[in-house]
Design goal:
It is a single chain. The protein is α+β, with helices and mostly antiparallel strands. It is rod-shaped. It starts with 25 loop residues before the first helix and ends in a 5-residue tail after the last strand. Helix content is 48%, strand content 15%. The chain has two domains: 25 residues, no CATH class; 142 residues, no CATH class. The longest helix is centred in the middle third of the chain and has 57 residues.
Length: 194
């Protein structure tokens, strides 16, 4: 038996680094520490600890997921863009309709035939399909019958108005439906000729 002095170097035999049955591997250490169960250890042993796929396969899976994510994102963006376009179109249509109503109101107010209600009842068809009635003078009734005047809707007012033929032509250019009766130069509006 050799004695070694403190601080002296000893040579290690190569057999000390070799695996001996008495040494524990990681599996045994995890089992002993209670971090894994015997079932989990057997499952890991059965899988063999092999990598789940090659780096190329993992990259392809990631790129496929990325492609699907981008397609979904692009589809959602396109849907949102379409919704924004439709909303903008609705706002533009509402603005045009408001401007048209404002212009009609100005035309009607500027050219309305102003007279007290007369003794002649003049009947015409409203936009709703119901029959409307205006109490007018006999002179205004003759103007309506000759085409020199027309019955038009008054935007913002439930009543209709009588306007001269020239004003009816301008109103007809803005909104054809606003002219409810006119024996105009192109075609009569508001009644049928037999």
């Amino acid at each position: 038996m050799s004695t070694t002095t403190p601080g002296a170097r000893t040579a290690f035999a190569p057999s000390l680094f070799a695996y001996s049955p008495g040494m524990q591997n990681l599996r045994d250490k995890l089992l002993k520490a209670g971090l894994v169960t015997e079932k989990q250890a057997k499952e890991a042993e059965r899988r063999g600890g092999k990598p789940q796929g090659t780096v190329k396969q993992k990259q392809q899976a990631v790129s496929e997921e990325e492609r699907q994510r981008r397609e979904t994102f692009a589809a959602r963006e396109a849907e949102l863009a379409e919704e924004r376009r439709q909303e903008a179109a609705k706002k533009a249509e509402a603005r045009q309709q408001s401007e048209r109503a404002h212009r009609l109101r100005q035309l009607v107010e500027a050219s309305r035939v102003r007279e007290a209600p007369g003794e002649v009842n003049f009947h015409f068809v409203k936009r709703s399909g119901k029959v409307g009635r205006l109490a007018i003078s006999p002179e205004t009734a003759k103007l309506l019958e000759s085409g020199a005047a027309a019955v038009v809707e008054d935007p913002g007012n439930p009543e209709h108005a009588v306007v001269p033929g020239e004003a009816a032509k301008r109103i007809y250019e803005v909104d054809k439906q606003a002219v409810r009766f006119w024996f105009g130069p192109e075609k009569p509006i508001g009644f049928e000729l037999d």
